[in-house]
């Protein structure tokens, strides 16, 4: 359910693009991101970092797209979001006691510290690469095609390509984590209880 909630602005962007154009889709995505962040606050009384990053980037770059009637800005939006996430993840490799991935997931999963660092590093690199791939598809792929076709290819890639690559990466990371997972003691359970000593 949370997965669909997180995709809510993206799905509305895609639907608006198919029925109208890139500018209506951009306006819909901006409104949906504000709504998503506001509803999350009302329900949980806190913000999610990912929602705030996405909202900030789409408000600025989507706003520029609408104000200047130039789709270049909205095409940069996925890259900027991915590169901000990549920078945060990679910086946490060297600053702080725990990486971002460990802080997010250690309550549910027990892994050795070197494994957390490898996971964090791989996510940072993955997001950096996704940002670069988005630039390629948005601005350099199919230069011999007409503008409408290239725009449609980019929107389809943004919705299905980037999402598909991310899902494949998540599955790969799940297999990697499963190989290194340690038993997490239940509340009140000691190591002795776990080992039967």
Describe this structure in words.
The protein has 197 residues and is mainly alpha-helical. It has two domains: 1-69; 71-185, no CATH class. Helices cover 78% and strands 0% of the residues. The chain contains eight helices and no strands. The longest helix has 34 residues, at 147-180. Residues 189-197 have low confidence and may be disordered.
Radius of gyration: 20 Å
Span of the ends, CA to CA: 41 Å
Average pLDDT number: 88
Proportion of beta-strand residues: under 5%
Which spans of ≥5 residues are poorly predicted at pLDDT below 50? 189-197
Total number of helices? 8
| Amount of helix | over 70%
* Broad shape: globular
Write the layout of secondary structure elements.
Layout: H1 2-19, H2 22-44, H3 49-68, H4 72-91, H5 100-105, H6 113-139, H7 147-180, H8 191-195
In short:
With 197 residues, the chain is an all-alpha fold. 78% of the residues lie in helices and 0% in strands.
Summary tags:
single chain; 197 residues; mainly alpha; 2 domains; 8 helices; 0% strand
